[in-house]
Amino acid sequence: MSEYARWTRRSADLWPEFAGELAGETGVSPHYYKAGGVHTCLSEEELQARTNLIERMRQVHGPERYEARVLDRRELAEMLPGLGEAVIGGSWSPHDGHASPLHLLRALHAGLLQGRGRYHADARVTAIARDGSGYRVTTAAGVFAAERVVLAAGLANRALAPMVGLSAPVSPLKGQILVTERAATVLPMPTAFVRQTEEGTFLMGDSYEDSGFDTASRPNVMAEIARRAARTFPFLRKLQVVRAWAALRVMSGDGFPIYEQSRTHPGAFVVNCHSGVTLAGAHALALAPMIARGRLDEEFAAFSAGRFDVQAHRDVA
Amino acid sequence: MFKRIATSRKARLSFDFEGHRLEAEDGDTVAAALLLAGERVLRSTAVSASERGPFCLMGVCFECLVEIDGIPNRQACMVKVLPGMRVRRQRGAARVGST
What we know:
The structure holds two protein chains of two kinds. Chain A has seven helices and 13 strands. In chain A, a hairpin with a 2-residue loop joins β5 (about 135-140) and β6. By secondary structure, chain A is of the alpha+beta class. Chain A has helices at about 1-25, 45-60, 75-80, 100-115, 155-160, 220-230, 280-295, and strands spanning about 35-40, 70, 90-95, 125-130, 135-140, 140-145, 150, 170-180, 195, 200-205, 240-250, 260, 270. Chain B is mostly beta strands. Chain B has one helix spanning about 30-35; strands at about 10-15, 20-25, 45, 50, 65-70, 70-75, 85-90. The longest helix of chain B is centred in the middle third of the chain and has 7 residues, at about 30-35. Chain B is globular, with a radius of gyration of 13 Å.
């Protein structure tokens, strides 16, 4: 979906400004740096798939605006100390960066409170009803009234959306992550599978499993993640894994976000995506102003859930 | 400060700490052997480089970290001494990859 390619790129371009604003307003830095990013490939098939993807992106953005390129082993080894022999090549993009999801979440909460917002924990929604020109939202923590309601509950949107005439056909896709102990900074930029945080830990993953709402760490997948990470950067074998976890991506049928305002319940919006960190820049600086204004831009029609409906022709009597 | 409570006679063995030869008994943990040898400082912290030594002796506090046979950040209290083992202080964050 070319609209998504442009949207995620727009977010990458907005991130520097977004990170600066957040840190300036809240004093909490999301540890953002834009050093570019690398995707490492361990086989010819992976490298070919990567090469094809970059060619498609070049066509979407226009070659002059998309500077990612395929690199051979030698070029990659110059960029990444300790690169394993198993890496045959990869790609590098100057548009990529790294942010700490933990610090980002803290900064967003701090920003919300500073903007006189309130966060109510343990407030599971049980009903949404019209209330004059706005809505009444009944939760476990009380009833809230508002002119606008934005459903941003991830997988729970599936149940919430029909309450306001929307649909959010999203399902869980499990991913697992391993985290090592801290080490002195080695990697100057993130790679898609291994990245080093500002504190020095290495994050390794990802994985894709369709296993419902199960969030247990499983040894077979953990072993595969560790194996791939150690082949990519053999020095990781010396470090101990100190944490492992699994979480659920919020996936729509085609993997792209859902942004839509209800036709039957104006002022009610659904927001669903699985790349909340990458898209945070565009969500904060582009999407939120549209919601505040009460209307999504024309091109957002591409992100409405109607795209998942089966298109059937019928005669109009 | 520390002294061994004499129980049964066990095999003596030697290992290396920061280039010095130290004695231990079969079954000693690295932390116990180093404390018996009078070594109180086993690591410096990654953030402020302040000195730390064994504290909990049961694998929880991570204050006794050392490098053992080239592997950084081993818990000295959880590893038994083996003959010829090479142990060094863990100075700051582990260094991997660039060497």
